[in-house]
Design a protein that fits this description.
Length: 390
């Protein structure tokens, strides 16, 4: 069921060819240009190779879309879920049982961090948040019962960079499965399988969807690992509806174009922000001043379309966000429209002030998701917002 090798006749198709064509459901009947959508929740079970049911993650639209994701991440197989959190939780629960231990990066998406802190104690799964994000920090946290190491790079919201290859090596050496949250980079900017990471997870709500109208998640990896996840997922049941799968396939056709344009904007914006007198600090791996710039250059194809910054103390970040007209202050990220948010008030609101301080998230921090607008218009919007609050 999980054989997802690209079926194209073309050898080694490039990024945009994969985005556009891999994983299309062939329209045998009418020869339409796009995938037909199969909404059926009931399929014949006799005389068929595959017994299909939406919760088994194997309806036609589901089965085809995962080929696109596997091709983009250069893995054998992939699965899609009803949200990024469903992808994360099903993946974790496939590799962890009572008595096991997971090592997780301390700078982590707030939802993942909450899931671990709130759910794992109920399940008697042990966890350690690392003290930092160097390979030594991860190694120091390993115990005899460690079954999974989970990293996030670039991380949310401070864009720290973890050495993917070093973590993959550590996992292999210690016989521990490794996973990465690759949401911020997207497969356009980073392919962790090239460095030996076992499981690659995405919130497809973000760059896969790209238009702020889809909630979905994905995990990519080997057939053997996907089968383990499937065994758990069919019980928990967080599968994605076929209509959303179809929307997602359509959205992913332009992912290469979108993310490259967004990444270009982020590079320009980061450089421009560092020169503005109203900005105290900019966090972006593409800046030469970023502590892990060299590492980012080694393991990323592009530096991504997310950045964070702090305004000088004289400027109130809430007032600033309220004055923005083109750039919307909204939850979530990665849409074609630029957005900003305060991690303290949104993504990391459930952490205590102490927990936030520990990972370096100040109340004034602004996370910036670059869209595809003209960069001059984005700069103009920021300038007028600063003038308005002066
Ligand atoms: C949004 C996000 C998630 C969670 O995804 P949902 O689709 O909202 O469930 C996980 N990790 C990162 C880095 C995210 O940005």
């Amino acid at each position: 069921m999980f054989k997802c090798i690209c079926e194209m006749k073309l050898k080694n198709p490039g990024l945009n060819t994969i985005c556009t064509h891999v994983g299309e459901v062939p329209d045998e009947q009418f020869k339409g240009a796009i995938s037909p959508i199969y909404l059926s929740s009931s399929y014949q079970f006799m005389d068929v190779d595959v017994k299909r049911y939406p919760r088994y993650f194997n309806t036609p639209n589901q089965e085809y879309l995962v080929k696109k994701i596997a091709a983009l991440e250069s893995t054998e197989a992939a699965m899609i879920f009803a949200s990024g959190m469903a992808a994360i939780s099903h993946m974790f629960l496939a590799f962890l049982k009572a008595g096991d231990h997971i090592v997780v990066q301390n700078t982590l998406y707030g939802g993942t961090s909450n899931f671990i802190r709130e759910e794992f104690p109920k399940l008697n799964i042990e966890f350690t948040f690392t003290n930092g994000y160097t390979v030594e920090d991860f190694e120091a946290a390993i115990q005899p019962n460690t079954k999974l190491i989970h990293i996030e790079t670039p991380s949310n919201p401070l864009l720290t960079i973890t050495d993917i290859e070093a973590i993959a090596k550590l996992g292999k050496q210690k016989n521990i499965v490794t996973s990465i949250d690759n949401t911020f980079a997207s497969p356009v900017n980073q392919n962790p399988a090239e460095f030996g990471i076992d499981l690659i997870m995405h919130s497809a709500t973000k760059y896969f969807g790209g238009h702020s109208d889809i909630c979905a998640g994905a995990v990519a990896g080997s057939v053997a690992h996907m089968e383990l996840i499937w065994n758990v997922s069919k019980n928990y049941g967080g599968s994605l509806s076929d209509f959303t799968v179809w929307m997602l396939e359509r959205s992913m056709k332009t992912m290469g174009l979108r993310v490259k344009a967004q990444t270009k904007n982020a590079n320009k914006m980061a450089k421009w922000l560092t020169k503005q007198p109203f900005v105290k600090h900019v966090y972006y791996p593409g800046l030469k001043t970023h502590p892990e710039h060299k590492l980012a250059k080694k393991q990323m194809k592009g530096f991504g379309a997310m950045l964070s910054f702090e305004l000088e103390d004289a400027f109130d970040s809430d007032q600033f966000m309220k004055q923005l007209q083109l750039i919307k202050a909204s939850i979530s990220l990665a849409g074609v429209e630029s957005t900003v948010l305060s991690p303290t008030q949104t993504s990391h609101a459930l952490l205590t002030p102490e927990q936030r301080a520990e990972v370096g998230i100040s109340d004034g921090l602004i996370r910036f998701s670059l869209g595809i607008e003209e960069i001059k218009d984005l700069k103009a919007d920021i300038k007028q917002a600063i003038s308005a609050i002066k």
